[in-house]
Design a protein that fits this description.
Helix 2 packs across helix 3. The protein starts with 6 loop residues before the first helix and ends with a helix. It has 3 helices and no strands. It is mainly α.
Length: 75
Amino acid sequence: MSKNKSPNAVRVARTRDKLRAQGLRPIQIWIPDRRAAGFAKELARQCRAEAKWAAGEGREDAALWDQVAADAWED
């Protein structure tokens, strides 16, 4: 163990090295903070909009994209 690294840091570094050796690479993603003020209200708004879209004009679009996805998985 290195003098400057905690045991946890060494373990994490080893795990990352093993993953890189397997051909993987790390990425970082940012997601909405569900604890943030207004999150629940915005989520409800988007859910209503999606439900309205799926029940109306989006139904045909959704069926098309479902078929495209199904075709892609068969290849």
